[in-house]
From TrEMBL, chain A:
ABC transporter domain segment(s): 7-241
InterPro entries (UniProt xref): AAA+_ATPase, ABC_AA/LPS_Transport, ABC_transporter-like_ATP-bd, BCA_ABC_TP_C, P-loop_NTPase
UniProt key word Transmembrane helix: no
Protein name: ABC transporter
Keyword terms: ATP-binding, Nucleotide-binding, Transport
MF terms in GO: ATP binding; ATP hydrolysis activity
Length: 244, 324
């Protein structure tokens, strides 16, 4: 595996009032790998994603991408530094059609596209994510899986170095899940680095090179999927003491 | 930019012909109708400028009269000191500075907080101007005696409206305008797409305020006497909102469809029921919000394409461009 570090997180801390959502998180993401961010509900995974993408401001700690400190920058600047994301609850632009949804990702990135060039690039990207037939349908009228595809398409339009997928595979039926896994693998093969928050074990085992497991805001394991899933600490976090 | 394409030349050419024709109106009708025409065009500018910002972002601003009043007051103060074009420049600068201050301090507010703030701002500015006039200049109320005829006012407004429409037309095809639409759809997504949300909102707020300020400045000579109560009358802000909502604030020409019938209606109401104007205005407001949530434009779009939008109509049933 390529060992060059793309993203490095250290001492990351976030409290909401008295609740410590993320506590001294620390991990690295290597160039070209898929990192799974696992943990029981409420363990702080989405908060970590929000801290990385700039949706939330951290109380302490550091986020560094390609050697550049992006801690607590506003979200649009973090986007310009090469990080794109999807949301746990899918967020498309409902009244805009699919082409415009993709153009939203193209028009304000570091090397923006606009006008005819953006239109052509959007159609090409829609084709790549399997939505070319829905190009002129308002995003709000799409099915759930298609909205998820579209949201991914918008993230890809930003040409990110690092893609954050927050439960992107959740809520899909078995055949859609296989399509989804294939799509993510294709992105990895194209060289994209990905952090995915995921509960779907099939997806984690088949996609992730490495997993970081969180519980109650802190990291409790870091290793290959097989290693972390058999770690007693991880089993205890998910299933309680009697199973460890 | 698609500046030289037919889809640009055609509407702009057509608009130019219509505006050229409208410019001859003073030779055709008497002064009563000219005064009505001035009302229509001034409200058309205010409602279109309001919609340029509030339509896509769905931020309901009640600060229209703040900028209108600043424009009018600038003319009252500087009208006899400087040549009129220079006065307009000063008014524009004053409006821009205030809009920048207001924009940067309030556009982080969302929904009802923004509405209340803009409403409070009207009162604040009115009180500050009153205080200044009472304590510093020691004369409440000013006379505006300028050598500007009713027809001059009409032509200036018409020119300003033309500039506004061209600006709006270009904006609708620009990255800035698209950014504003994305912000209106989902501000969080907009940020993660790399849009500097605050800057875009402030830019559009200032642009919209600039046109409102200039309208106030152009209209000032019509009054001959102004004081803070006349210049900063909050009723104007409500009238503009209601007109824009009736027409449909999400389309460039939408507000115009609300301005024409409502200006005529207000004219009848003030003439026939001068003492009940406010309550009738309130009733009109409620009827519009309940019966025509998407405005006249929304009605037309629903009727034109009933099939395509069936799925989305439920989500769109909120009052057109609502506050939250």
């Amino acid at each position: 595996m390529n060992t060059e570090i793309l993203l490095s997180i250290s001492g990351l801390h976030k409290a909401f009032g008295g609740l410590i959502a993320v506590n001294q998180m620390q991990f690295d993401v290597h160039q070209g790998e898929i990192l799974g961010l696992l943990g029981p509900n409420g363990s702080g995974k989405t908060t970590v994603m929000n801290l990385i993408s700039g949706a939330l401001q951290s109380n302490d700690g550091k986020v560094v991408i390609s050697g550049k400190d992006i801690t607590n920058l506003p979200a649009h600047k973090i986007s310009h530094s090469g990080i794109a994301r999807t949301f746990q609850l899918v967020r498309v632009l409902p009244d805009l059609d699919c082409v415009e949804n993709i153009e939203a990702g193209l028009a304000y990135r570091t090397k923006p596209l606009w006008g005819d060039a953006a239109h052509a690039a959007a159609l090409e990207l829609l084709d790549r994510i399997g939505l070319s037939k829905q190009a002129h349908i308002p995003a709000g009228d799409l099915t759930y899986i298609d909205q998820k595809r579209l949201e991914l398409g918008r993230a890809l339009a930003l040409q990110p170095k690092l893609l954050l997928l927050d439960e992107w595979l959740a809520g899909l039926n078995p055949s859609e899940l296989q399509d989804g896994i294939a799509l993510v693998r294709k992105l990895k093969n194209e060289g994209l680095t990905i952090i995915m928050v995921e509960h779907v074990m099939d997806a984690i085992r088949s996609l992730c090179d490495r997993c970081v497991v969180m519980n109650a805001g802190a990291k409790i394991a870091d290793g290959t999927p097989d290693e972390v899933l058999s770690d007693p600490e991880v089993v205890r976090a998910y299933l309680g003491d009697s199973h460890a | 930019m698609s500046m030289l394409k037919p889809d640009f030349i055609k509407p702009v050419g057509l608009g130019a012909v219509i505006f050229a024709a409208l410019a001859f109106m003073p030779t055709l009708v008497d002064s009563y109708y000219m005064s009505l025409a001035i009302s229509v065009v001034s409200f058309a500018i205010l409602a279109t400028a309001w919609s340029m910002f509030s339509g896509p972002t769905r931020y309901i601003s009640l600060a229209t009269v703040v900028f209108f009043g600043i424009g009018a007051y600038t003319v009252a103060v500087l009208g006899e000191v400087l040549p009129f074009p220079l006065v307009l420049v000063c008014a524009g600068l004053a409006g821009t500075v205030i809009a920048l201050l207001v924009g940067f301090s309030t556009l982080r507010l969302a929904g009802v907080y923004f509405v209340i703030f803009t409403f409070g701002l009207t009162e604040l500015v009115r009180q500050v101007v009153s205080w200044y006039e009472v304590n510093v200049t020691r004369e409440m109320g000013r006379y505006v005696f300028l050598d500007i005829t009713q027809n001059d006012i009409y032509w200036q407004l018409l020119a300003l409206f033309a500039v506004l429409l061209v600006t709006g037309f270009i904006l609708g095809r620009s990255r800035l305008g698209f950014a504003l639409r994305i912000i209106g759809e989902d501000e969080t997504v907009a940020k993660h797409c790399g849009i500097d949300v605050t800057r875009v909102k402030v830019a559009l707020f200032v642009l919209s305020a600039l046109f409102m300020t200039l309208t106030g400045a152009i209209m000032a000579p019509r009054w001959t006497y102004i004081d803070p109560v006349i210049a900063f009358n909050p009723m104007l802000s409500f009238q503009v909102v209601i007109m824009a909502l009736l027409g449909g604030p999400r389309r460039l020409l939408g507000p115009l469809l609300g301005v024409i019938p409502l200006t005529l209606l207000f004219e009848v109401l003030t003439a026939s029921f001068p003492n009940h104007f406010s309550i009738l205005l309130g009733c009109v407001f409620m009827v519009i919000v309940y019966l025509l949530p998407g405005g006249v434009v929304g009605l037309y779009e629903k009727y034109r394409a009933p099939k395509k939008r069936v799925l989305a109509t439920d989500q769109n049933a909120e009052p057109g461009g609502n506050a939250a």
